[in-house]
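note to self — DONT lose this again. spent like an hour looking for the file last time. sequence + predicted structure for the chain T wanted, 107 res
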Amino acid sequence: MKDIEPSEKDFSASDASIDSYHVPVLGDELIAGLAVISGGHYLDATVGGGGHTSLILAAAPDVTVVAIDRDAQAIRFVKPDLSANPSNFGRAILLTISRKTPNLMVS
């Protein structure tokens, strides 16, 4: 059985991929619950290891995911793996937020 999250003392983030860093749980339920469709726009408000973002991108063509996290290291971690797939170009928007980030409102 694959470990869900290796402990930091046994794990070097620089040698990791999304698949070894974090195994997303409830992936099928996520895709069904979001009713992911081609051309859809989705928000992953806790990108973490990028597992759910990757699942959403893989679920249908032409989806866009805005993936945010307060942890800048998480964004730096997932960026190379998400960018490695040419079909993800322009489909995954990665942002770091902080307490200094102004509140955003969509009307």
